[in-house]
Amino acid sequence: MPKLLDNLRWQRMWTSHLGAIKGCLDYMGLNVSLPWLFGATGHAFVLNVSDVVCPSGPTAWNTHT
Fold first, then answer.
1. Contact 15, 8 (CB under 8 A)
2. With contact defined as beta carbons under 8 Å apart, do 18 and 41 qualify?
3. Looking at the predicted structure, is the pLDDT value of residue 28 above 90?
């Protein structure tokens, strides 16, 4: 049976992985800014463009390979 943690919330953003990490950091009381999180994870420095150049750009990763 899954256990739910009160006040653990995903932060909505275009990059759902970082939204989940930010939600966990907030839950643990760690005051980390979004710019710091993007830089520390390296996400701020990734250039990823879809083959068809659509607005989903950095969210177009194929995570199944």
1. no
2. yes
3. yes
